[in-house]
Amino acid sequence: MPGGVNSPVRAFRSVGRTPFFVEKAKGAYLYDADGNRYLDYVCSWGPGILGHAVPSVVEAVQKACENGLTFGAPTEKEVELAQLIQSCVPSMEMMRLVNSGTEAVMSAVRAARGFTGREKIIKFTGCYHGHSDGLLVKAGSGLLTGSVPDSAGVPAGYAAATLLAEYNDIESVRRLLEENEGQVACIVVEPVAANMGVVPPEEGFLAVLREAADASGALLIFDEVITGFRLGLGGAQGYYGVTPDLSTFGKIVGGGMPLAAYGGRRDVMSCVAPCGAVYQAGTLSGNPIAVTAGTEMLKLLIAHPEIYAQIDQSAARLEEAYRETGLTVNRVGSLLSPFFTREKVRDYQSVMTSDTAAFARYFGWMLEKGIYVAPSQFEAMFVSAAHSAEMIDMTCDMVKEYGKSGMI
Ligand code: PLP
Fold first, then answer.
1. Catalytic residue among 38, 77, 169, 223
2. Whole-model pTM?
3. Cα 363 to middle of ligand 1, angstroms
4. What separation in Å is there between the alpha carbon of 129 and the centre of ligand 1?
5. Which of 67, 108, 384, 388 has its CA 20 to 30 A from that of 156?
């Protein structure tokens, strides 16, 4: 395996370490093969909003396995999950279930192109939307961690159809729409940027994007792979009150299994095969085990909406602890990032003022104290409902101790 891993950031290269290998996980803890226990603020990069190995999700999956692992034919369970998603996110008038966030965004962009008959797309520097060719241009997440925001192997033609705007800079969007009038199929955005560290949308940014998209005939796509069911049952669109044409969901929606969804306006989604001419398919799409895990997860969240206040509060306490150390901290709900800079962080440029060597020292120090944060400055910290008040207290104490260690 390249780097010994199946997804690059897992290799711990940017923090100069060798990754631990996980043996099992339960609640807020990960246990490695060397017998160490870590309080986990990565939560599998987002899905673990209720912690690891949630008993009713595990039980539902075990039961579902007895009836077969995959059928390649429709099931009632897929309809049930789609209805649950729709009940929380009304803009999902019609949707498709797929296997990963990458597939969801790739497919949503294709649907937008098919619907509008336009080829170009606008994305934002530092936003990550999975690893499909056209979206690997100035992307965040592992690409930033590896200091290569553009991937090799992407044909120039694909990259040329991706226009780059700056996050929180509506003028950069307007300029691109003007210069490419009638050619832009969609604006795709993380409504809360969380793949260059957490960068919240400034007041009105999303609403103005909505207006700019409408005025130009482009569709607005919210990539809610991270924000969906994390900022609340209604995702970022519910949180900020701005409705996109299409949305993508992943991570939480699969309850820890490989499942994602894309969807939105009925007229747009009606372009997808077999209803329309935009092709998209998948042998394992709507897999019964993944659908079962996702359904059980959403049922739990719908039955316990109070967990959102709990995880927000936990994250707010962590935010305060980091702030006391003098670091810049961004937080939206249960997503947060301490940045190793004194500057306000509001876009890619300000993110890049962070001292990644200082981050690496902090990462190692925390890990040695038994706290696992993402091994990169450019990823979010995920708080789960399994993080008890005591665990948050302990983490805050460690953060403050680190702050006083003189290592920042
Ligand atoms: N979109 C966003 C906002 C993401 O954060 C990610 C992954 O982290 C993706 C898309 C890609 O999802 P996946 O890794 O499931 O392909």
1. 223
2. 0.97
3. 23
4. 5
5. 108
